[in-house]
Amino acid sequence: MIIMNAAYDEQIRILRDVQGLDDWVLCRESLTMLATKLREDDAVGIILFQARWLPMQGLEDDPGDLLMQMVYSALANVSGLASLKLSAEAIRDALESRTGTPGVNNYRSAMRELGQLKAFEVTSNTDIELFVDVVSAIMMASLDYWWGTRNKDLWLRSFEHKHREDFFIRTHHFMTDPGVIMLNNHLWKQVVEAIEGTARE
What we know:
The chain has helices at residues 6-16, 24-35, 40-51, 53-61, 66-76, 81-94, 104-115, 125-150, 152-160, 169-174, 178-200. The protein is an all-alpha fold. The radius of gyration is 17 Å and the shape is globular.
């Protein structure tokens, strides 16, 4: 059980009140502090919950997508950190063929970083940092997937960077998109609810 105090409550408030991607750094800092109160199973649960969003949305967009079916199935049978890492390796390899599509590069990066997490010790700054990096990369993959599949031309331009103005697409379009902002806030609130759930156990 998490022992709550004023500092804990403040970090929870920050994540619950997130207003957009401009708060991203602050949210990462809050998650870093809150992660020091988690057990390994709690951390795995948070990673899993976030990681399932992209394949679930992918299957909603295209129910016949066999690769997304594979990713979702690989995450469905996870029982702990060791099996999650095995699934992450398989997912990273499977998604290599889609590195030029929305969300996939961030998702594969998260799976790679997950493979570096040998354990989850709250006294280890390295473990905490890796956990936060994994969760953040998964969430960014979800945001990139959502925006990119709905704005394919803009996404491709921001990915290829063929022209000078393409470097500003993420700032002018992605970060200001109401749907992206809404999803970002929703994902951070899911993290908050998961952490608060561990406090009640």
